[in-house]
Amino acid sequence: MVNATKKLHKIFHNDGSLWGKGYLVNEVEEGYWVWFRKDGSKLRSGTFLHGKQTGKWTTYDRRGNVFKITDLSGKKSRSTSKK
Questions:
Q1: How many structural domains are present in the chain?
Q2: Cα distances (angstroms) measured from residue 23 to each of 9, 31, 58, 83
Q3: How far apart are CA 43 and CA 33, in angstroms?
Q4: How buried is 5 (Cβ within 10 angstroms: 0-12 exposed, 13-18 middle, 19+ buried)?
Q5: Dist CA 25 CA 2 (whole Å)
Q6: How many CB atoms lie within 10 A of CB 82?
Q7: N or C: which end of the chain has fewer CB within 10 A?
Q8: Which of 46, 32, 39, 31 is nearest to 63 (CA)?
Q9: 60: domain range?
Q10: Residue 77 belongs to a domain
Q11: Is there a domain that residue 79 lies in?
């Protein structure tokens, strides 16, 4: 990308707690992003490529344990639960 502007971006819940953070390149999600619940526990993490979710996305339970992994690499997404 020529003259791409990459900056850390944060999104907040209505109560002011951090909801998500990651990078924007020219105002589009790019690279690793992480999302949080209002209590601060990690909810989900994964990678964006040109504004679209790609690769493996991990969903966590409130204790931070992996709950499921969703693979968005192919044409159809697949989820694997860790129950």
A1: 1
A2: 6, 6, 18, 31
A3: 11
A4: exposed
A5: 11
A6: 12
A7: C
A8: 39
A9: 42-83
A10: yes
A11: yes
Q: Is the pTM of this model over 0.85?
A: no
The Cα 70–Cα 20 span in angstroms is 18
Please indicate, yes or no, if residue 5 is contained in any of the structural domains: no
Strand partners, 75: none
Tokens of 29: 């999600």
Task: Give the start-end residues of each E strand in 1-83.
Answer: 6-12, 18-25, 28-36, 42-49, 52-60, 66-71, 78-81
Average pLDDT score, the chain: 92
Residue 2 has pLDDT above 60, yes or no: yes
User: 76 pLDDT band (50/70/90 cuts)?
Assistant: low
Q: What are the tens digits of pLDDT across the range 9-57?
A: 999 999 999 999 999 999 999 999 999 999 999 999 999 999 999 999 9
